[in-house]
Amino acid sequence: xxxxxxxxxxxxxxxxVRRYADRPIDPAAMERILDAARWTGSAKNRQPWSxxxxxxxxxxxxxxxxxxxxxxxxxxxxAIMLVMDPAFPAAAYDAGRLSQNIMLAAWAEGIGSCIxxxxxxxxxxxxxxxxxxxxxxxxxTAIALGYPEDERATRLDRSPSNVTSEVTPGRIDPGQxxxxxxYSG
Amino acid sequence: xxxxxxxxxxxxxxxxVRRYADRPIDPAAMERILDAARWTGSAKNRQPWSxxxxxxxxxxxxxxxxxxxxxxxxxxxxAIMLVMDPAFPAAAYDAGRLSQNIMLAAWAEGIGSCIxxxxxxxxxxxxxxxxxxxxxxxxxTAIALGYPEDERATRLDRSPSNVTSEVTPGRIDPGQxxxxxxYSG
Lengths: 185, 185
Description:
2 copies of one chain form a homodimer. By secondary structure, the first copy, chain A, is an alpha+beta fold. Chain A has a domain at 43-149: NADH Oxidase (3-Layer(aba) Sandwich). Helix content of chain A is 36%, strand content 17%. The first copy, chain A, has a 4-stranded antiparallel beta sheet with strand order 1-2-4-3, with helices on both faces. In chain A, helix 2 (27-38) runs antiparallel to helix 4. The longest helix of chain A has 18 residues, at 91-108. Strand 5 of chain A pairs parallel with strand 1 of chain B, so a sheet runs across the interface.
C-alpha cells in the first residue's frame, strides 16, 4: 500500500482541464482508466452503464457542438461517453461515481479531464444519433481527456469566457462544509 | 506525484465493507477524508452540499433503521451523511462524485465504507428529523465508515442475506462495458 497521504493529495488535486496538448492518450493508460471505470461500484451492483471511447477528431468536434459548455471536447485527445440505463433510480448518482473514478484514474496517469453535459434534450438527441445510442439508453455526460497543455491548464482563468463568468473558484470553508452530529445551519 | 498505478489499483480495489472492527476512526484520517470530500468538483463548482459527521452510537443505530439496506450503519465507527441542495439539476450526479471521493480517501486510509440510501420518503423524513436537516435540503445518502472487521470483510458473502440475495458479484466483461467510437449493441 502506498503512502495514503499521496493518494488523498491526488484526490484533492483533481481539477478540470480544458486545454490539452496535441498528443494522443497512451493506449495502456487508456486501458487502465477503462478498467478503473469498469470496477466502479453501483447501487446493488446493477452497473447501469457502458461507455463509448471516442478518439475520432470529427466525432469529437461534432460532440463539442452538443452542449453549451462542451467546446473543450473539440480539442481533447479522447472522450469517454457515459451510456446509462435510466431504468434504475440511482442512475444519475451512479454516473457521478463512474465519472469520478474515470477522472481520478486519468489524473493518476497525468491526464487531465473535464465533464461536458450534453443538454438540453435537443443536443442530447443529436449526440445519441451521432454515436448510435439506442432509445432506451441516455448519453448526457461526456468526459473529455487529454494531457494538460501546460502547467497552467488547471487554472480556471484558462477556461472559455462563458465558463469563467459563471464559475467561482475555490471551495467553501471547512466550517460551512462539515457539521458534527447534527446539522448546524 | 505517487506511482500512478497505485491510485488506479486503489480505485479498482474499492469494495463495500459492511463489517467493522470495534475501533474509532483515527481523527487525523477523518480530517483528510473530509478535506478530500470538500475538494470534490461539482457542476459549475456550485458545491450543492455539506456533510454531517455522525459518531454517536445511538444516532448511528437510529439511522440504521432509516433504510431497508442500512443496517450496517449500526455497527459503523462513523457515518458521513450527505446533505444536498436539490435546487441544482446535477445534484444527484454531484452526490455520486462526492461519495466516490469520500470512499476512496477512506480506503486509502485503510477504512472501509458502504453507502446506505435512506428511502422511501418516510425513512428520509425520519433521518432528516433525527439530524435537524432543514426542509430545503435532502439527506438520502449516508456513507458508513469503519476499519474492516477482518480480511474477509470486503466479501459479498459477509453481507446480510437481504443484500446477498439481490446482488450479483463481480463486474460485466470489458467487451460489454467498452464500445469504440460508436455504440455497438
